[in-house]
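Your task
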Amino acid sequence: MKDACAKKLIPLWGMFVVFAVLFCLNMFQMWTVLSIWTTGLSIFLLIKNKFPSKKYIITSVIFSLVASCVYLAKDFQISWSSYFTLVPTLFCCLAVFSVMEKYGDFAFFKNDTKSSVVKSIFIAICVGVVLGIINYFFCKANSEKDYYFSILRWIVAFNPAIFEEIACRAIFMAFIYYVYRG
């Protein structure tokens, strides 16, 4: 039993060591490395688990388009930066959903009863509001004196909200889940 657990930790430690070495060497732009790394990891998971159902493919396309729209909102033209957001977000989203479908016994919130769903959504909204307020004050402290709300700023906020949560967190959670369940 102990050997089986140790074998499952090898890919996780391998990922950590490679990423730590690249970070310490700091020879690359780390966002590019992260984008390539997570895209490769998501392609691996897609090969192993197949594509998710049609509704998850549509959801993945929507998430990736919204995440890359931030670059259209900034300069109204498609740039390489939008592709470096679109592609990893799309593949990572597809991979996370494929792992969720294959090993469907985990969920982002408990859905045993209606009250548990409401409680989970309430907790998520409270955490989001607290983090949003913190981000607002950091943004306000680092921006111009006459800070104002605009729809453009709201659209720009979608990039980190979607790209970082999917490509920087959820894909690694799905990979860990695949390693331990697969």
